[in-house]
Amino acid sequence: MNRVAVALALLLSCSLTTAEPAAKAALSEADAAALRHAAGLLDAYRGDDASPLETARTELDAIVAANPHHAPAWRELARYRMMSGHVGGGDFAPGALEAADEALGKAIASDPAYAAAYVLRGQLYRLMKRPEDAIAALKKAESLGSDDPWLHNNWADLLLDQGKFIEAGEHYRKVADDEKAPLKARLAATEGLIEFHLDAGELDRADAMFRRLVALEPGSARGHTAYAQFLLCQREDYDGAIARARAGLALENQEATRYWLAAALYRRWAQAIVVDARPEAGKAAFAEAQAIFPGVAEVAANAATCPALDFVAQAYAEQAKSEAAPAKDEAATTPSH
Q1: Fewer CB within 10 Å of terminal CB in the chain, N or C?
Q2: ∠ CA 91-96-99 to the nearest 5 degrees?
Q3: Tens-place pLDDT, residues 41-61
Q4: Of residues 174 and 43, more confidently modeled
């Protein structure tokens, strides 16, 4: 599981909470509806189709042009700039984060008591590797009375960066256990607890958090996919990983889910080749894996980050050797002319 990418996607999908005070600069009904629509598009974005982002940008640009002192609109525009500039992992296109900070600066200038802008700015400065500024922004949000779940998640991320795992875990648990908190905030907090338990080597507790992740979003393949990766790479439970990945694919046909199903199937095949010395027993798993993701060499190359795949690398090497032997023998017995 790519914790940085997942947590970032969840954070950026966070919209305004119902606890936020009304903006000082009121919008027309049409602009208010457009802002809700744009925020909804940002909420739904998971890093795939970028066209909704551009629709949101068009709407937000029009709103801030007509309402230059409306703080929530500037905050949403900052979210857009962070999302559209995200190129993978913790990386952003040059200038994207600075542009987001500019938008948040305008939100705060429009309403200095707008806590939600400081909550987002805290995470923005963390991503910009400005931890002291991030701390100051989150403290400002606290001083304004915010108890936003994302405030706790952002504190937890900062504390995790500082190696303060116990304190980070307390913030994550506050959100993860709060049934009234927004779903995406609880998902991000649960992801944080997973990392917390993995870092501590507490696999059973991490396992329980993966189950919670699946339960929180039962209609999504995402939790099943992350759980499948964990079962394969951390617990070497390839049968469990296969079951989880299949459950995810029954919900959504996601590329990552297909990959981890294929990886677990290749691991089952490798078990038959390397451990059990029963090549015939692994043929069905290999054929299914090939149909899903034919790049067995690519899967085997990921053994450094998923040790269970070392068996796949061994099986792949044995297969290549056995396929090369008949060709070599045939060449040796073919008469020359």
Answers
A1: C
A2: 150
A3: 998 887 778 899 999 999 999
A4: 174
Mean pLDDT over residues 292-310, rounded?
95
Domains (range + CATH), the chain? 33-146 (1.25.40.10), 152-217 (1.25.40), 235-322 (no CATH)
CA torsion sign, 8 to 61 to 147 to 223?
A: negative
